[in-house]
Amino acid sequence: MSLEGYWGVGPKTAATLRESLGEERAVRAIESADVRALTDAGVTAGRATRILRRATGEGAMEVLATSDARSVYDDLLDLAADYAVTRHAGDRIRVLTPLPDRAARESRLDDVLAAREAWEALDDDAREATLDAFERYDEADGTDRAAVETVLELRAAGLDGSHFEALADVDETALREAADALRYLDGETVREGADERLDRLRERQSAAADLRDSALDVVETVRSRGTRDADAFQSAAVEYVAEETGLGSAEVRAVAPDDARDAADFVGETLRALADDLETRAADRAETVRTELSAAVDAAGTDVETAVAAVDDIAFRLSLARFAAARDLVRPRLGGDGVAVREARNLTLSGEVQPITYGVGDHDRRRVPEGDRVSVLTGANSGGKTTLLETLCQVTLLAAMGLPVPAEEAEVGAFDSVVFHRRHASFNAGVLESTLRSIVPPLSGDGQTLMLVDEFEAITEPGRAADLLNGLVELTVDRGAVGVYVTHLADDLSPLPETARIDGIFAEGLTDDLELRVDYQPRFDSLGKSTPEFIVSRLVANAGDRADRQGFERLAAAVGEDAVQRTLEQGDWQPADGE
Given strand 356-360, what is the order of strands in its sheet? Predict the structure, then answer.
């Protein structure tokens, strides 16, 4: 395929890649998801990532049906890439895409969880040794020699064929000899240090070449030593060249001309012949050494080829394993046509996080209602409703990529489209139109769709928002999709379809610091309340100005003065000084 055949590679980008890498190397970089090669060639990091995602994932990116779904996807891959053990492993993680079928997802889950088992079996010293080995591999830019040495170091750290087939039944002696040989091979070139004789020949050839390039200076130097006739000059010139190159006088004399016209001719011809002779001898010796080194590499046979081919894959799998271990991720059950989680956690939240149990659609998880196509999620502001939607989106996308998920248990179906829509507080017709254009077509097309929609009413007037939300719920059910819709308009919705339910998240009061205390676990088949008395209580308690406080107390009377007073007493609130 030509460069222009890849998504996102237009004439300008193709010209940049051809100029820097050439067609073949550029295609190889795209096919191997080598972000670094593309960015080094002059393609921006963001564009390179988008190109490679499309190249490696074909049509899989269509699963991410909205910009908010793509944002969650980006955040997940950035988080996972933080655990990469090599640069290339990080690049490969950042271009992961949803996999096309269940078999591919199960296969990757097998690989990642086997690698996690191997990683967790290592002690701290072995883990450090493993990371150091990959760091050295990175610093060497992934050469064949670095790959062989990395395989040896990984085996020494305790990783073996029980989890990584490439590390099984390796002839370590042959690999060490191959590594020593590869240290001095650079393609067809033999590096310095491989052979003392070759090094001496190269040093002498370099010295002879330098003298050849400054032959007139050599003539002047020899003459300055007081030579009086031609024979004396030639003898002195031979001795000088021998001294400067480290050769014997006989070796220099052997290439000197017998019929030189004058001193300059004698020196010039001698140095040209000597430099050519040493270059030939050095090349012959280099070929002999190269053959010997190649034989040592060949003696290791397929072990070297296996090592070179396997190190990047082992790095990729161990990187994902470290992500899974650090974040305590588990294998989801792939099946059903919905999504259900027990004790799920949002990966982008820090600190102590209350896990949630939730689900919608057909599944086999206990403690979660089964069979409903839609849940309408209601409840308090700052109650975690949006976070719940994002958590379900994270679990769904990780499972789609064949990665473990942040939950005690999870069951995830196969979705052709994931529609995640965060609340966007922009009240105008343009936002409403663009939102409908992004969330309705996935429901109208073929394939299974997951709808995760947050406070749709924020982008249009409440009365019409309820009508539109009813329509979306009914369309979701009619199309056989599943969805979770967050709203404060549950009371305004017309009777829901039989396969839709209403769940609620409840605020339970204020903390001693007058922060809202929320039970983030939704209560199934319960209408959540926004409990404004808690918010008003906090405003009353925090009012520093007497007039402001009186205003908030008027609001307290409107929402229920007794409830506000009970909240203040439970929060152990004390009046401000002077009240």
Answer: 333-334, 409-412, 339-344, 356-360
The model carries a pTM of: 0.81
Quickly tell me which residue has 């899974």 as its tokens.
Answer: 324
Query: Tell me, what amino acid is at 398?
Result: L
503: β partners:
377
SS3 559: helix
pLDDT confidence of residue 346: 96
Q: Which stretches of 224-262 are DSSP H helices?
A: 230-245, 249-255
User: What residues does 379 pair with on adjacent strands?
Assistant: 505
CA atoms within 13 A on the CB side of 232: 7
Q: Which residue type occupies 502?
A: I
Residue 344 has pLDDT above 70, yes or no: yes
Token pair listed for 423 = 């609340």
**Token representation of residue 479:** 């199309």
The CB-side HSE value for 517 (13 A sphere, CA atoms) comes to 11
The whole-angstrom separation of Cα 101 and Cα 106 is: 9
Instruction: Write the DSSP string, 41-103.
Output: TT--HHHHHHHHHHHHHGGGGGGB-SHHHHHHHHHHHHHHHTT-SSHHHHHHHHT----SSHH
Amino acid, single-letter form, for residue 163: H
CA distance 227 to 382: 100
Question: Which residue, chain included where needed, has tokens 């019929």?
Answer: 259
Burial classification of residue 495, based on how many CB atoms lie within 10 Å of its CB (0-12 exposed, 13-18 middle, 19 or more buried): exposed
- Using one digit for the tens of pLDDT, what is the confidence trace for 184-213? 888 788 889 989 999 999 999 999 999 999
As given in the structure block, the two tokens for residue 43 are: 């393609």
15 CB-near residues (< 8 Å, 6+ apart): none
* DSSP secondary structure letter of residue 338: S
pLDDT of residue 7: 86
Tens digit of pLDDT for each residue in 500-541? 999 999 877 767 666 777 889 999 999 887 667 677 777 777
Summary count for the chain: helices (H), strands (E) = 22, 12
d(CA 26, CA 28): 5
The position carrying tokens 């908010």 is 68
The sign one gets for the Cα dihedral 80, 81, 85, 89 is positive
CB 358 within 8 A of CB 392: yes
**Beta-carbon count within 10 A of 261 CB:** 9
**Alpha-carbon distance 343 to 407, whole Å?**
5
- Write the Ramachandran bin of 429: left for phi over 0, alpha for psi from -120 to 50, otherwise beta: alpha
Helix extents (H) in 300-341: 302-326
